[in-house]
Amino acid sequence: MLVNPFDNRPGHIWLDGGFVPWGDARLHVLSHGLHYASSVFEGERAYGGEIFKLTEHTERLKESARILDFEIPWSVEEIDEACRQTLAKQGFKDAYIRPVAWRGSEMMAVAAQSSKIHLAIAAWEWPSYFDPELRMKGLTLDLAEWRRPDPRTIPCKAKAAGLYMICTLSKHAAERKGCADAMMLDWRGQVAECTGANIFFVKDGAIHTPTPDCFLDGITRRTVIGLAKDRQIPVIERAILPEELSGMQECFITGTAAEVTAVAKIADWNFTPGDITKTLMADYTTAVQPKKAFAAA
Ligand SMILES: Cc1ncc(COP(=O)(O)O)c(C=O)c1O
Questions:
Q1: Membrane spanning segments where (predicted)?
Q2: Which listed residue (62, 89, 157, 159) is catalytic?
């Protein structure tokens, strides 16, 4: 049941250079982005009125578009400013921000060189992706049937809408089984990531995480690796086989939406949220606090 549908909310959405009332931010049904998935997006989060790592997100958005062979006709600075304005216009301090760019409806075929490029930015309040109580207790994850594809078959470094098709299928299958999310293997059968988050394991005081060679090297992933290194916790990026999971003691996932969230179970593998997970959850919460507030303190 949809309680608060996304096409009808109060406020405004930034669309192609200016604000329009939320309900008027529409696109034509013959948009290339809808038919052929020529669409890239970002998921950003604001804490205390400041968007965490905003420029990194905007740079990734621009790069995702380039990988899909189109150029977003606004600069990184202009997009950063539009994201800040969107947040301010909605009057939110703690919120999720969603920029999305897509090819329009000028050409309706696989080729779309003359299609106009659109950009929209929306912001909404979104306190926690997973149930806050579960985040500390640890999520139960399914093992997805779908695998992250060979990088020779998809533009795996783009945050592109088309790459989420198997994520939606995997997340639906997981939720049908009562799981919060699904861990996906890659095309080689190695551990990859979740449907919208990267994954980490802890064994004997060291962190192990898959090398991001066919999936998104998340901004949160890189932040958390930095936080672990600041605490002299060794971080080993390597190929991880599912058979190894029985020897892992802790598991957690990272993402802008997921933040740092403990995992208690994946299929038949069990983990106990422990000191390293708890430390990094707390360090991440500190790291995302608005810098202006720190400067003023
Ligand atoms: C498939 C996938 N992997 C990983 C991540 C984590 O990326 P980030 O930490 O940049 O949000 C996300 C979220 O954007 C994602 O959708």
A1: none
A2: 159
